[in-house]
Amino acid sequence: MTWLIQFFQTSIGKKFLMAVTGIMLVFFLITHLAGNLMLFGGAEMFNNYVLSLRSIKPLIRIAEVVLVLIFICHIFSGIQVTLENRKAKPQPYRVSPGSSTSKFYSRTMAVSGSVIFIFLVFHLQTFWWSFQKKQGNDTGFYEIVVNSSVGYKNPAIALFYIIALLLLAIHLRHGFQSAFQTFGLGESRYKGAIEKVSVLFWLIIPLGFVSIPLYFGFIK
Amino acid sequence: MKITVQAWRQNHRNAEGRFESYSVDNVSEDMSFFEMLDMLNNQLILEGKDPISFDHDCREGICGTCGVMINGRAHGPLSGTTSCQLHMRSFKDGDVLIVEPWRAAAFPVIRDLVVDRKGFDRIMEAGGYVSVSTGGVPDANTLPVSKKNADLSFDAAACIGCGACVAACKNSSAMLFVGAKVSQYALLPQGQVERASRAKNMVKQMDTEGFGNCTNTSACEVECPKEISIVNIARLNREFVRASF
Amino acid sequence: MKLVNPSNKRKYDIIVVGTGLAGGSAAATLAELGYNVKAFSYHESPRRAHSIAAQGGINAAKNYPNDGDSVYRLFYDTIKGGDYRAREANVYRLAEVSSNIIDQCVAQGVPFAREYGGLLDNRSFGGAQVSRTFYARGQTGQQLLLGVYSALVRQMNAGKVAFYPRHDMLDIVKVEGRARGIVTRNLETGEICSHSADAVILATGGYGNVFFLSTNAMASNVTASWRAHKQGAYFANPCFTQIHPTCIPVSSEHQSKLTLMSESLRNDGRVWVPKKAGDYRNPNDIPEEDRDYYLERLYPSFGNLVPRDVASRRAKEMCDKGHGVGATKLSVYLDFEDVISRKGKEWVSEKYGNLFDMYRQITGENPYETPMKIYPAVHYTMGGLWVDYNLMSSVPGLHVLGEANFSDHGANRLGASALMQGLADGYFIIPYTIGDYLAREKMCTVKTSDDHFLRAEKVVKENLEKMLSIKGSKTVDDIHKELGKIMWEHVGMARNKVGLKKALELIPKLKEDFWKSVHVPGDMNEYNPELEKASRLADFLELGELMARDALHREESCGGHFREEYQTEENEAKRNDESFSYAAAWEHKGSDSVPKLHKEELDFEEVDLTTRSYK
To answer: What's domain C449-578's architecture?
Structure first.
């Protein structure tokens, strides 16, 4: 095991951990989005979906624990990499080259990541925790998400969701391709394919998420 | 034309630094950027002031000694060009040039615009070679190398070790430098025997030197005067993972 | 030749000054053998040495293209190219080891150019009618130096080489008449320090910067050689300087250096000037019949690939006759139109891309569309410290390698031979010959706290303090430019008695002026590039005088040394083998005395002395 620990202590190892956990998290986003889209099917459809998840609760719990571990690794590694990188460049330049040498979304991963983290805490505290409090065959999940004071009917909440999700898009714009570069595939013959697939992850999935607060907060 | 130079001045490693502004008249556009600095220095010396120290040597873009940040750009605004090959025709009358040394914890300032890049040499010491001693080697044509690999290897070997990649990287990462060297050998049959240990040892030394972590912004590739591609970073990642598992 | 037992090698310390191709390869190889090596460079890293700038390639008698090459032919071409002023034995040995160099470099992972079948590619170069030049695009010197550097860092890692970066050698220390150490200045802190050893190797390059403008790097200097010369090492053939025909012409007063365009360009580029003097039309508007491809006209068999000295002199002649082009009228065209239309732009770009880019960056003109303008510039110095067959100078224990010695190129160096010589000296010659010296001598122990060292340090310090104390009205560069003008005008491409005598008047005056009116800012105990430059210039001023003296005494024309009084009716160099078939080794006799000339007669047993002809 020491070789594995040693690997993750190197600069490339840390990046590798970021990349692997990041990719795992985007796959979670697919399932999460699929569930969320049930909201468009109305209260009954959504409530039944949540109840069906509840019926396999032990499995869900395991999944949640794994997810939390992945998140912790991703966040912890991100913080570590960011702090080390700040230390490696103690004095900034007087003139910043801005976007002439790199894309803004590649330079702002720590910022976009931090905001997404804050959003995540809020999101869990409002939706996930309220869901947990419901017992037995209680329903009303739809109500919480759409019509409660912390739901999308509140324009401030809906706006917050939209901003956070756009930041997620920005985060993934760099993150997805960056992960493959870290795996050593970024500039290979797979480059074109990775670029195409990345659009699904950085653009289509976040837009899918954005459609929900946008619809329930401002259109419906 | 008339140029204003705002240069970083710092007397020695531990001294406080500051920017100072100088005005240079009669700059011709055929001058190189360093010839403009030469002219400024001549003027400063005759005024009894300290000239601006900057590293340079071959002035033909190959030795890798030079390198300054000009208006936030490593080696100035042109791509694929070292500071010494930059000519004043790239600027216009009245321009203000803010000239700074490479900034990185691993590259401490020695004086003014001169930095200490010995970290690069120590990374090379850790494994940037094929362990063959002089004599007793096979005939040069014993091992054929596909032209494609020979060319790719050359593309990586073209690195001049100037440090612009570290300077341009917001994290002061040396991955492009290390990636280029590891790639050069990984692509050639001569480099195979020590392929794994080389990748591991060079990365370890890179981390020890205090270079930052690569976050794939690719600023290094944009600023590299020899246009070394980040393909080499991807290859380094592969080599390192392969060596570790 | 005597040998040192393998287990005894670790008892010897060897100092290597300069870590370019010659010094770096010597340091690495000696360390591999077991010697303790201390390597010094004024650069921050061995990878910065000016060997890196060599573009075209490296010769080796491999005969891979099957075009009739052999060790003898390489030997013969080199002797002939050097206009019969090199020592036969040395050159033969050089040709013999040339193949080993390529093997060694390939084994180190040097990415030479290859053909589609995977084997090494060759190209042709000036002064030879076979293709024996191995190359790595236009960056052969860089790749070879990085190979040397890799061998060197490997030994640094093994603890067998102690490398001293940013250390300038300022004196040789002799004990009992033998070279036993050096005095250095740490360029970052200014500290003056001594280092002792059992033998000293200088591989400190050439002295082309005596002309101020040359293709040498800014810091290239003669100081190590010159200080050794003042300690008793003879300086041989100082007037043999090579003027390279294909450089980017001077554009302004402020120019700090000249840039070479590899000679390999002459493989495919055609040199021409307008037929009519004073024809200032745009080159693309000058029709074929109004162009004079003078090299092809004068030398039908070698054409554009005549040796460097010939190509340079002919360019000067054309410009002197008023056929020069460009704003200064001091350049000729090097045209690629022909090859671009024959093989396509892509082919040309693959082969010469980086050179074309470099030309465009410097001049702002696109050589794919308009012909390059080129003019000769000082490039290489064949002269240097005199060495015997074992590469030892006239000071026992002091060995000299690479461009710093005088041995292999005679009066003119052929293209792609400098890299060959540097690596031959370092990889394959000094490792054997130094053992012979060490095994023969009984050495006393020396410490850097001994009087010899302390005295040398004191002299070095006083010299630097004196420069710093003048605080006159001229900068180092001002005076260096003046020296350069004198040298170029009177000791340059074409020399004559009157001019050389004038130089011998002007240079001492300028030297006097230097010691009266130079202004060196700052002080000694800090990073002070102006002080480095001043110290180097002081030596160039003395060397310049010796060069003029040597050029004056050699009353013949040979290779890079062209005396206008001695030429054939066709303006070719006219040698005088009766009186001058020797290497002129000058012994320093004190700053105010005339140096003493020693003659090493050159015996030619294998090659007949003939008039060089490239027609």
So the answer is: Up-down Bundle (1.20)
The closest CB to that of B171, out of A10, A85, A186, belongs to A85
What integer is the mean pLDDT of C405-433?
96
In angstroms, the separation between the Cα of residue B185 and the nearest Cα of chain A is 17
Of 3.10.20.30, 3.40.30.10, 3.40.50.620, 3.40.50.2000, which CATH number belongs to B3-110?
3.10.20.30
pLDDT score of C421 more than 80:
yes
**Residue A53: C-alpha distances to residues A146, A148, A171, B132, C504 (Å):** 19, 22, 29, 64, 100
For the segment(s) A13-89+103-219, the CATH number from 1.20.810.10, 3.30.70.3270, 1.20.1300.10, 3.30.70.20 is: 1.20.1300.10
- Whether chains B and A touch (3+ CB pairs under 8 A) is answered by yes
Backbone phi, then psi, for A76, in 5-degree steps?
A: -60, -50
Contacts of A183 in chain B (CB under 8 A): 237-238, 241
Over residues A82-117, the pLDDT tens digits come to 999 999 999 999 999 989 999 999 999 999 999 999
pLDDT averaged over every residue in chain C:
95
Query: What is the average per-residue pLDDT within C451-478?
Result: 97
Q: How far is CA A139 from each of CA A44, A48, A146, A216, rounded to the nearest angstrom?
A: 9, 8, 13, 19
Classify domain B117-130+143-244 by CATH number.
1.10.1060.10
Mutate to test the interface with B, among A77, A95, A99, A178 (most CBs of B within 10 A): A95
Q: Tell me if A88 and B104 make a contact (CB, 8 A cut-off).
A: yes
Counting Cα atoms < 13 Å in the Cβ hemisphere of C596 gives 8
Query: Hey, of B152, B166, B217, which one would you mutate to test binding to chain A, going by the most A CBs within 10 A of its CB?
Result: B217
DSSP label at residue B87: B
Sign of the C-alpha dihedral computed for residues A65, A69, A74 and A80 taken in this order: positive
Alpha helices in C441-496 (DSSP H): 451-470, 476-490
C357: pLDDT strictly greater than 90: no
Which tops the pLDDT comparison, C351 or C326?
C326
**Distances from the Cα of B220 to the Cαs of A106, A188, B108, B187, in angstroms?**
13, 18, 19, 22
pLDDT tens digit sequence for B210-229 = 999 999 999 999 999 999 99
| The pLDDT of residue C272 is above 90 | yes
Mean pLDDT score, C581-591: 96
Model pTM score: 0.96
Let me know: does C544 contact C481? Beta carbons within 8 Å. Answer: no
Where do we find the tokens 């370019």? Answer: C20
* pLDDT band for position C64 (cuts 50, 70, 90): very high
- Burial group, residue C243, by CB count within 10 angstroms (0-12, 13-18, 19+): buried
Q: In one letter, which amino acid is C371?
A: P
Q: Please name the CATH architecture into which domain C244-378 falls.
A: Alpha-Beta Complex (3.90)
Whether A135 has a pLDDT exceeding 80, the answer reads no
